[in-house]
Model the fold of this input.
Amino acid sequence: MAASALPGVESVLAAALCEDLGRGDVTTRLTVPDGRMGEAFLTAKQHAVIAGLDLVTPVFELAGGGVILRLEAADGDQVVPGRILARMKGPARVLLMGERVALNFLQQLSGVATHTRSFVDAVAGTTARITDTRKTVPGLRVLQKYAVRVGGGSNHRSGLDDGILIKDNHIAAAGGLGAAVGLAKSGAPHGLKVEVECETLAQVGEALTAGADIILLDNMSVDDMRQAVKQVGGRALVEASGGIVLANVRAVAETGVDLISVGALTHSAPAVDISMGWQS
Amino acid sequence: MAASALPGVESVLAAALCEDLGRGDVTTRLTVPDGRMGEAFLTAKQHAVIAGLDLVTPVFELAGGGVILRLEAADGDQVVPGRILARMKGPARVLLMGERVALNFLQQLSGVATHTRSFVDAVAGTTARITDTRKTVPGLRVLQKYAVRVGGGSNHRSGLDDGILIKDNHIAAAGGLGAAVGLAKSGAPHGLKVEVECETLAQVGEALTAGADIILLDNMSVDDMRQAVKQVGGRALVEASGGIVLANVRAVAETGVDLISVGALTHSAPAVDISMGWQS
Amino acid sequence: MAASALPGVESVLAAALCEDLGRGDVTTRLTVPDGRMGEAFLTAKQHAVIAGLDLVTPVFELAGGGVILRLEAADGDQVVPGRILARMKGPARVLLMGERVALNFLQQLSGVATHTRSFVDAVAGTTARITDTRKTVPGLRVLQKYAVRVGGGSNHRSGLDDGILIKDNHIAAAGGLGAAVGLAKSGAPHGLKVEVECETLAQVGEALTAGADIILLDNMSVDDMRQAVKQVGGRALVEASGGIVLANVRAVAETGVDLISVGALTHSAPAVDISMGWQS
Amino acid sequence: MAASALPGVESVLAAALCEDLGRGDVTTRLTVPDGRMGEAFLTAKQHAVIAGLDLVTPVFELAGGGVILRLEAADGDQVVPGRILARMKGPARVLLMGERVALNFLQQLSGVATHTRSFVDAVAGTTARITDTRKTVPGLRVLQKYAVRVGGGSNHRSGLDDGILIKDNHIAAAGGLGAAVGLAKSGAPHGLKVEVECETLAQVGEALTAGADIILLDNMSVDDMRQAVKQVGGRALVEASGGIVLANVRAVAETGVDLISVGALTHSAPAVDISMGWQS
Amino acid sequence: MAASALPGVESVLAAALCEDLGRGDVTTRLTVPDGRMGEAFLTAKQHAVIAGLDLVTPVFELAGGGVILRLEAADGDQVVPGRILARMKGPARVLLMGERVALNFLQQLSGVATHTRSFVDAVAGTTARITDTRKTVPGLRVLQKYAVRVGGGSNHRSGLDDGILIKDNHIAAAGGLGAAVGLAKSGAPHGLKVEVECETLAQVGEALTAGADIILLDNMSVDDMRQAVKQVGGRALVEASGGIVLANVRAVAETGVDLISVGALTHSAPAVDISMGWQS
Amino acid sequence: MAASALPGVESVLAAALCEDLGRGDVTTRLTVPDGRMGEAFLTAKQHAVIAGLDLVTPVFELAGGGVILRLEAADGDQVVPGRILARMKGPARVLLMGERVALNFLQQLSGVATHTRSFVDAVAGTTARITDTRKTVPGLRVLQKYAVRVGGGSNHRSGLDDGILIKDNHIAAAGGLGAAVGLAKSGAPHGLKVEVECETLAQVGEALTAGADIILLDNMSVDDMRQAVKQVGGRALVEASGGIVLANVRAVAETGVDLISVGALTHSAPAVDISMGWQS
Done:
């Protein structure tokens, strides 16, 4: 499913354009005649995994329309510096008014896909999947989670409503880990698994007894993770979380965990340098 | 002016909360009783400049309210790891439902302020000001520009409507740099200065002749910048732009330019690690 | 969690009030002086399970405010005709402007809770849970699913994003039941179970082999359901669906299925008769 | 005027789709390839009056578009079980994502039209018109009132602003029935008639004296209604209201009243069973 | 009912503030310290009827809040130049940010009330009422119609849905005046009167025969109006419309028409000069 | 840039149409058959400068679409009474439902353009430009400022964020005119000029010393203005403001000021009489 077809994306694009245009592009209104046409192209300036290319079309549509775009790359492509991503023809005013917003989305999402891909590559050959978290940039979650998939990662829950994750405060409030898991299993919509955060191997045992479907190992040492995986023995999925960076992700993956969640995929991915050039 | 008082911020917060809550927090509904109270605190986990602290209150208000917050730091503070930023008391459900969204804003904005501060410190003692660009994260521009100010930077225009910046395509469309500047000067609201992007020293001369108020030196070498500053001789403001990173920003500043614009302040600032702990 | 605290409910209430008020209550403006106060009370006119009582307060708040409300019943209460549910005091204009909207919500939601309760009571003593479906009244899903819980039912997924349910068309498109289940298991967020709709006992076998977490028996005879439950033997949850009414629900429950989904809970629950009387 | 052309309907459809899709259809994304096409048809499963058929097109448009629809019935048609209502061809993903929402609207509105038609048929040959009330499902008033018209009923006011209806509390506040009618007649926009609710024959007399245009007989016995009609003698329209069901509506109509308002048309109409089948 | 209590007004105020603030008040942010308080007062600079005074409070609330306002006049007051209308104390930033928007509403609405009052005074002693039209300033209809009432005028329909007015094109489409009136009388919600526009005395006759409730005399001469009033003889309300200005309104009123509608009340009322002064 | 291409205009049009249609055009629904076509034309009834003609198309699009429009004039045209502005063909229902809203915009904006033109003509031959202010009709600022340009005027700032204007209260809060100008110059985005309001010639001197870019002469006599212009001597732009009407604007312009701002352009421009006729 293309980025532009995700629910709510059109209004995210419209809000971003509105944020940039304000009451209108003064410079362009004053210097560029109304009927003038232009041609431009998008170029990657660095190695990257591209994500969000199909958003360019609706951005120009919202900026006034009339732009014809020919994609020369697709989301998921790993590109080298200088690679042309798309060519556009249309009213010069529209191209100028939509340029920055289109690039801002493309640069942010390609940043996430590129960052994700580096983690995915680092664990290649193990059975671990790299997943995202809820540590996303406010307002861009659906798009960032799309970019994670483009980069080869998989998605954790999208929000507080489409997944159950019991943390220490839920445990304290429910009167114990077993009680919390029990409440969740009996009360939740039956399509949701119950995941519980464990800080010790003892808690992992409790979680198994209570019938948890997924066990999150919170900030455990690599040795403890290896131990936990053994202890679980396939009776639940095991997710590693906390303090995982490129330098240690392979070691974590080799413990045998099923999932490794990494906040930095979405909260700290540097933007990819992509520019819009003009055909002279 | 506090971040929460900026126009449009309340709806940005509400959208972010809505994005995270979806149809509601299943885990919390099932495991945490309705009347239960909790206490929590926010802690910085790394060296950082804090920005966005006052957003925490409206986030918890939108998440259900009833939270009492005591700030122990203020926006602009340079903090060390372990520094407590705020203490909160309130309904446990509300604290749990607002936690991630509050942290996401705080981490992103503190990231921008911290990144900005490093550039500002690098040019200390010169006359150059560090400014942001329109390369912002979609939907967060007003907040990111606030964080730039908190980090000691200054703001470029907020969008296409509150500043005039003539680029090569405007010049081409208008039939020359002088013509473009002329159109802008005669047609623009009289409160806006006219800025023009120059790629060569020859263009700098043209811009001065045409009466440009600000000259942007686009991707020039440090030597050319120094030359351009001399050429301008105070008749216009001079802004350096393009390819400026921490490693070269001081050299750029020492050319005598008035302004240095850096896209990375807002498009690639890594999030600051801030966490919410619970009083046991 | 109270109905009024569910995400998005306040805007649903505001839209309903706006729908009723239009440009304002002409009759009340012309005949009721601005400062006049009034007292009123809500009464059930039939046997019912009440749901949505706490919505009355925000409706009057949106209608102008100043109303003090004393609840004399709570959501989930099974009431008899004549039972007073709440007493209100406040500006007569506000009471008149909010009356119909408050009642419309209360009558609809109590209808759902009452209808649900009759199904839940009918299967008392079996291990089957009554669940809702996505056959809800457009715009009221979150509230109707709340009312189902109030009536003792449990919730199926809230939408297409927080649960996986593979139907015949997905199976055809994926190239077979096993293939479809496999795609879902490997690609879905790891917190979601995989449910698959089966029309025959042979398909039930395929679903088990493929590792489905939940098996939906679509319009099967009671005998086939009993057979299917045996065949599954606890390796997956079993949900009965299709053509289930009060007259046959107990027979279905006694087959041993875990879940019985009933569209009529939300698409055809008659409104409960509740009226607002005035203290003279 | 088609249902889809009514003011505000497009946003009601969009909200319903958003409610169902949430962050997107996981099952379909994972199991149905992007380019796959499908064919489907809508079938009535029971005797019904159809309403809302033209909403199907904009629902699929909002769900992604590309669906070609051929209507084989029209709003107002009285159909028998098995009757095909429409045939559709288009992207399988779009058909799957829009299916439930399209059906939910069609089932609810056909329910209202069908229920209305049964009341209208019951009074055939008398001079009474069946009208709706403001007891509608929140958010669906414009559509439900459309369905009432499709079922042969007529509409009462749409809200508090496009009709005047003086009830007992208005009377009390104004200091008497005559005073209330007087205030309404002198202050209201001149295009609105003045209707007043009467509980006794004495009040009917007062209302006539005061010049009321319409008299609502509130919960009167059939005998009193007959008496009231005689008393009014054509000087005002007479509306019967309160406790009217299919079993007694003809008797009420035969008293000679002009209008009979029935809340159940909109608050308790059971959904019509309509399903979407797939061409194999 | 106060202006600020009219449906939809709060969002009209918020939109106006947003329109003026954009991304925020730069001047005030830079020159006025955050905690500084101020005192100000509103003064009429000309003879006027005041309308919209109670909007000042919500405007300052939306601009940041904390302002205490003491009204020294009320809507409907006829004031002389120099009259103080209200005194305010609060944060200087909030007063500065809300000032212009508050004044813009107050000046526009007082303009409408003042203009209306001049027409109402001109027909004093006759039986004619001055009414507004749908020729209102886009977005301000509810407020302008309120101001008309404040100025002593009465309201025509608010829009196309709360009144029936048959014009020449409706007549042509329906196949004659009588046919059009008949369709409207049988199909309309029973609380709406049927008004029909007549250009000749012959049409007035047709309208009476068809049972029209209100007859609009479109651009007739004063003599024809007098004739029409006689012809109608109280069997319908008579409204004069078209080309009516202060200079001829009394002559029109003296023909005995019941209503005189004047577009200029709302489309061309000059703003009243009201200013905000600061306590030094 | 056409009026309809200005940011936010489409939603302003939609809101206006919604305001007029309410729940729908009853008269048209009842009297005009669904398929009926019509032809109409727009005519100016007085001398005017036309503005907003291109808004007619999107209004009819929003009202249902299918209307083909042929413009016979363009924004900025100075027309005489009787001049046809556009011809339209399309569904009669759509033409009837969009007519009033289209006219309301066209009449208001042409009013502003016409009023502006009279001021611009009055200063012809001088070097003064006529500019608007923030005294606009709430909700219509972007459109009114467009109409000012159409009438030959130039625009002042659009809001509080795209221009700096220091008034007496900012001066008082900052501790003096020089201090206020200094704070603005050092803190503002570098693309904004600093304008300061002066009431005396002494203040003009202070402003020059402080480096103000623009000096606003507030309510000065013509003699003082002449003096101020001399004093400034081209070191800053000079704007005259306060009490300027058609009768004195030329005298003001002849003092040599650069700009003359006139609130009445937007707050008190009478609507231009434009009507829609029907082809019989």
Notes: The CA atoms of residues 244 and 262 of chain F lie 6 Å apart.
